[in-house]
Amino acid sequence: MDNIPEKFKNSDGSLNADALMKSYYELERKLGTMITIPTDESDADTHARFRRAIGVPASADEYPIDSVFDDANLRQKFLEIGLTSSQVEKINSIANEFLSPVISELFNTQSEKNAMIELEKFFGSREKMQDALQEINTFGNKFLPADAFDALCSTP
Q: φ and ψ at 117, to 5 degrees?
């Protein structure tokens, strides 16, 4: 009886079986709700229980949809690697913050290239286009307020 914790003893020093049984049932209940962290050798059911416990959706369709970077294949990859919805939201937020400006710049560059191609077609040659652009610049600088001319030059 020396090794029995005080919480399992009666006031006379005898074993308090009710307290011991209550503690045992509480321990069983707690162990029953614990989730095993899976290893590479764990079975599919262990992996599935763990994923549910940490908040991985049941299907890729349950992930949040991003207006810029949404893609069904990408959401499927998120599911395969076990990302939670909040992790996907953070990835989308980072992508919007860092990639959107890059994509926008690429789009603007491509639009500018396309515009130059269309201008060359319109004027018939690169040289004629360059001459026309020079004349437009001369006219704009001479007859338009600088702010207005700059605004006109910056619009596609």
A: -60, -45
| pTM attached to this predicted model | 0.50
Please tell me the distance from the alpha carbon of residue 148 to that of residue 49, in angstroms, as a whole number: 64
Instruction: Note the pLDDT tens digit of each residue in 127-150.
Output: 888 888 888 888 878 888 888 888
Provide the residue count of the chain: 156
Q: Are 87 and 57 in contact (CB under 8 A)?
A: no
Name the burial class of residue 94, with classes exposed (0-12), middle (13-18) and buried (19+) by CB atoms within 10 angstroms of its CB. exposed
DSSP state of 56: -
Distance, CA of 119 to CA of 135 (rounded, Å): 14
Contacts of 2 (CB under 8 A, 6+ apart): none
Q: Residues 14, 17, 18, CA angle at the centre, nearest 5°? A: 125
Task: Give the model confidence (pLDDT) of 45-88 as tens digits.
Answer: 888 889 988 999 999 999 998 877 788 999 999 999 999 999 99
Integer Cα distance of 156 and 63 in angstroms? 37
